[in-house]
C-alpha cells in the first residue's frame, strides 16, 4: 500500500483550506447556523461548482468526479478544521452511496447527477436515534429491532395500490429539516416476516412533517421527521441486502468522520497553542511553563496517533470503526483541554472553543460511544469468543 498523497489530493486539500479560511471563520459559522437551513447555501454552491465536493466520490457516469472515499475523507478533514456546516455528510456520505448501491438504474440516473452537482440535498432518516446501529458502527444492522421491528414505534411501511405508505417518526435526522430528499428506513412485512427497507420521500410529499430540533452541536443540524400516511417510493427493485448496504456505507461514514474529527482536533489544538504563546501570567507567556508544555505535547501525540489511524482507514475502510473511535476520543480530549488552557475566557459560552467541544460531544452521542465502537470492531474481527480473547 502506498500511503503517500497524490498531487491531486494535495491540491484538493490546499484549495479547500484556502476557500474555507475566507468563507468559514467562526463568525461565518455562527451566522450560517442561525439561518433556516443551518448552513450557507452560497458557500455550498461554491463548494459544489468550484470543487465538485458533493460528487467527489461518485462515478463520472452520474456526474461525479470519480475519486475514492479517501479523497472525500481528506476533504472532510478540512471541513472539520473549520466546522463548516454543510449538507456534505448527510448528502454525499450517508444518502448518495445507498442510492448508488441499492437504487434502480432509473433512480440512480435521476438522483445522483443533481446530488453530484450540489442542487439536490438528501439525508438518511433512521427511527429512534439508532443511526450508529443502522450503519453497523455499534451493532449488526441485520439484527435487532432498530427500525420498529413490526411493533409500535419506528416507521412502518405498508403496500397500497399505487406504491407504499409510511407512518411513524424519526428523530435526530441530520439535515432532516432542509434536505430535498429523505431516505427513510421503514419496517415492513409484519412481525412474522419483518424486514427493513429504504424509501425515497421528497420534501414536498403530502403527509411529511419536519421540525428542526435544538441540538448540542449547532453546526450539525438535526430534525424530527414525522410521516402520516406519507407516500414513499421503494429504493431499488429487489433490495434484499439493505443491511449489507447500510454496513458498507457505515464503513465509509466512519472513515470520513474520523478524518473530520482529526481536522477539528487539529484546529482546536492550533488555536490553543497560539493562545498560550500570547497569554501572559506572572510576566511570561503561559506556554513557557513546563506543565503546560507537557499537556500540549500529550495532546499532540494523541492527535497524531488519531490522524495515522484515520489515514489508514482512508485506504482500508474496514479499519474505519477503530479509527473513528480513536479520532472521537482524541477530539474529546483535545477540546476539553483547550477549554481548560484558555482559562477563564475558555469557559464563556460564546468562545469558539465550545464549538469544537460540542462537536466532540455530539458526534460521540450520534455515532458512538467510543467503547461501543471498539467493542463492535473487536466483535467483527473475532477477537472474543465466549468472553475470552481469541489466540
UniProtKB/TrEMBL annotation:
Keyword field contains Oxidoreductase: yes
Record's keyword terms, sorted: FAD, Flavoprotein, Oxidoreductase
Gene3D superfamilies (UniProt xref): Acyl-CoA dehydrogenase/oxidase, N-terminal domain, Butyryl-CoA Dehydrogenase, subunit A, domain 2, Butyryl-CoA Dehydrogenase, subunit A, domain 3
UniProt domain Acyl-CoA dehydrogenase/oxidase C-terminal: residue ranges: 256-379
Record-level Gene Ontology MF annotations: acyl-CoA dehydrogenase activity; flavin adenine dinucleotide binding
Protein name (database record): Acyl-CoA dehydrogenase
Presence of the UniProt keyword Iron in the record: no
Residues of the signal peptide: none
Family: Belongs to the acyl-CoA dehydrogenase family.
Annotated InterPro entries: Acyl-CoA_Oxase/DH_mid-dom_sf, AcylCo_DH-like_C, AcylCo_DH/oxidase_C, AcylCoA_DH/ox_N, AcylCoA_DH/ox_N_sf, AcylCoA_DH/oxidase_NM_dom_sf
Cofactor: FAD
The species this protein was found in: Streptomyces purpureus
SUPFAM superfamilies to which the protein is assigned, alphabetical: Acyl-CoA dehydrogenase C-terminal domain-like (SSF47203), Acyl-CoA dehydrogenase NM domain-like (SSF56645)
Limits of the Acyl-CoA dehydrogenase/oxidase N-terminal domain: 6-118
